[in-house]
From TrEMBL:
GO terms of molecular function: hexosyltransferase activity; hydrolase activity
Keyword annotations: Hydrolase
Domain Glycosyl transferase family 28 C-terminal positions: 201-324
Leading EC class: hydrolase
EC number per UniProt: 3.6.1.57
Residues at which substrate binds: R156, E256
Keyword Hydrolase assigned: yes
Active-site residues, as the UniProt record annotates them: H18 (proton acceptor)
Name the record gives this protein: UDP-2,4-diacetamido-2,4, 6-trideoxy-beta-L-altropyranose hydrolase
Superkingdom as given in the UniProt entry: Bacteria
InterPro entries, A to Z: Glyco_trans_28_C, PseG
UniProt-listed SUPFAM superfamilies: UDP-Glycosyltransferase/glycogen phosphorylase
Gene source species: Alteromonas pelagimontana
Amino acid sequence: MRPLVFRVEASTQSGLGHLMRCLAIAQAAEDQSIPSIFLLSEEGKVLARARHDWTYDVISVPIFESQHEEGSWIREILNAVNASALIVDGYSFTSELLVPIRNCETSVVVLDDGSNALTAFADIVINPATREYDELYLQSQASLRLCTGDKYRLLRREFQVLSLPSIEARHGIAVNLGGSDPMSLTLPVLQLLQQTLPEVPVRVVTGAGYRNLPALERFIAQSPLAVQHIHNCQNMADVWSHARVAISAAGGSQFELAVCQTPSLLLMVAENQRGATNLARSQGWCEFFDCTTEFPEPRLSSALTELFFNEHRLKEMSAKASKLHDALGAIRVLEVISEAL
């Protein structure tokens, strides 16, 4: 297959979720000797290259007066590298970006979380969280190929080969509120843990886009909690799979947690996470807490205290997760892209 080109939104403000799921596709492509080229902002380039497993070419996106102008620039790159597909992931992109690419010989792949903003210009739509928008997608364009639902969940290479400890062999609580923690929930969660379960060891992970490192480091230095802090973690599969309980943002991390069979408390920080998170809760392996308006400290504290020492319930939750997902979604996406060429 000819090269893949990715236009991805990545920053401390927007987070790293878009980049991480596109990284999963790029890794699957790399395993098949398919090159990947990323078009990123200067900030996004720094965040991407902070990862030890980053092996992909990056082209910095200049500042344009309009997305239409940027789309024309992207078209030139697609033609220059003879790209097989352009993969677009980000909430700030509008249809104007794709207008100049519409008649290009490159397939356009859009990752959508329900906004349906770009699907009229796409050849393939990816929405791993749900199939509830399938009819809406096909109304915008009947010829669309859909990669929707569980089988297309985009998990990085580290989640494809797992050796999972039993609940009895797991220890402590793992905390990760995303690559940049845009709602600044890491410190409130640690403060809650200090008050609720002060003797339980904690692994807290912050991403390359996390902005409150000095305050976090001061808290850890002064806290009686036994805290291991991992910044810019390169192997979340190891973190999740060894945790007895996880407290996590309810974005793409929830799919990682399900594959790792880790009982979880998911913190919903954006409205577009509600559908997938409600589904995850109904599957029985997690609980979820709405943090879009306020931090639900009393409820979270109560749920954590009740769950952590209830080994029977933890085993039940882990067992329910074991029947749900695999980590082969990115490979299946590549198969659909190949079929569309």
